[in-house]
Write a structure and sequence with these properties.
367 residues, alpha/beta, Quinone Oxidoreductase, Chain A, domain 1, seven-stranded mixed β-sheet, 10 helices, 24% helix, 26% strand, binds zinc ion, oxidoreductase
């Protein structure tokens, strides 16, 4: 039985998002059909729009930070049934790549994807699903192992945030470069991901959590989520200020959630001896950075710096998503406070504009 729905679609490069009627085939073997309840609006969707599809074929179904209810399951699906509440993971380990085979699924090279089963109703064109999800839609089809069951008491309009922004930031702090108790930490860029790094640093009992941004509003948010110190990078040299706050020697961990050369370089220059810089922010195509390797004080070599890149918090969704839900339910992870606006599917373009203006921490589309 085919399903019908409505979705926010990028029909062509350079166009705004348009609402379209869609049809969905029954989920195939190992797949599930999810009726969406809520979807966060993430910067990556904006990148897909602004970078003309980021390599995906048009038309493109946006959205990858969603939660919903299982409507139907395909052949062989035993872990889920209709009515189950789920959060959709965009990186569910494949169980077949070299990393998965050596028992390290957090470093999986690929991710499980569903067969393309969603079409634009007016002409039958198959939709590409952003990050194998496609959550700006009343319904979507995903791989069953990418649909992570939530506890019944978990509100889905908050649970959706776990799927991208929150797992990326908290996971960077707990998985990619695990913070030790008593560490000094700096976070460059205090949007949804940076705020989540701050929450992860607090969960890991960091000593100083230093938030760096250009926006006073974001620095205010950072304090509310656990930053012990804030540095406005427009007022003087943020590297000198961070090093001074961090006992005069620099930070053990610097997380960079902007993706531009300046903050990438600043985060590395803020490290204490043998510290680790973690790069989360999405860079522009062909972007280069200048690294000082040889300076006797702060050069990468003499400072014995470790540089890491974090995708999706190096998550193992089946383990990490229920954990984050539990931490929320226990009052240790703030999600309600991250939602600064709610909206509807027909107002996605406005949500993107608000994001570009820096006015929101997270907008959530409610279906
Ligand atoms: Zn995202
Ligand atoms: Zn794998």
């Amino acid at each position: 039985m085919p399903y019908e729905g409505r979705a926010a679609v990028l029909n062509e490069a350079g166009r705004d998002v348009e609402l379209e009627d869609i049809t969905l085939e029954d989920p195939g073997p190992g797949e599930v059909l999810v009726k969406m309840v809520a979807s966060g609006v993430c910067h990556t969707d904006l990148h897909v729009k602004n970078m003309n599809g980021m390599g995906m074929a048009f038309p493109i179904l946006l959205g990858h930070e969603g939660a919903g209810i299982i409507e139907a399951v395909g052949e062989g699906v035993t872990n889920l049934k209709p009515g189950d509440p789920v959060v959709i993971a965009y990186r569910a380990p494949c169980e077949q790549c070299p990393a998965c085979l050596r028992g390290d699924p957090r470093r999986c090279w690929v991710a499980l994807r569903p067969k393309q089963r969603i079409r634009r109703k007016r002409d039958g064109a198959l939709l590409s699903q952003v990050l194998r999800c496609g959550t700006f839609s009343t319904h979507t089809v995903v791989h069953s192992k990418a649909a992570i069951k939530m506890p019944a008491e978990m509100p889905l309009d908050k649970a959706c945030l776990i799927a991208c922004g929150v797992i990326t930031g908290v996971g960077a702090a707990l998985n990619t470069a695990p913070i030790f108790a008593g560490a000094n930490v700096a976070v460059f860029g205090c949007g949804g991901v940076g705020i989540s790094v701050i929450q992860g640093a607090k969960l890991a009992h960091a000593k100083r959590i230093i938030a760096v941004d250009l926006s006073e509003r974001k620095l205010e948010w950072a304090k509310n989520f656990g930053a012990t110190d804030v540095v406005n990078a427009s007022q003087g040299d943020p590297v000198a200020r961070v090093r001074e706050i961090a006992d005069g020697v620099g930070v053990d961990f610097a997380y960079e959630a902007v993706g531009i050369p300046k903050t990438i370089e600043q985060s590395i220059a803020s490290l204490a001896y043998a510290g680790t810089a973690v790069h989360i922010g999405l860079p522009e195509d062909e972007q280069h950075v200048n690294l000082n390797f040889g300076n006797m004080d702060t050069g990468v070599y003499w400072n014995k710096a470790t540089i890491k890149v974090c995708h999706c918090g190096d998550a193992l969704p089946s383990n990490d998503f229920p954990l984050l839900a539990q931490l929320y339910l226990q009052g240790q992870l703030k999600l309600d406070e991250m939602v600064t606006a709610t909206t509807t599917l027909d107002k996605v373009n406005e949500a993107f504009h608000a994001m570009e203006g820096g006015d929101v921490l997270r907008s959530v589309i409610l279906f």
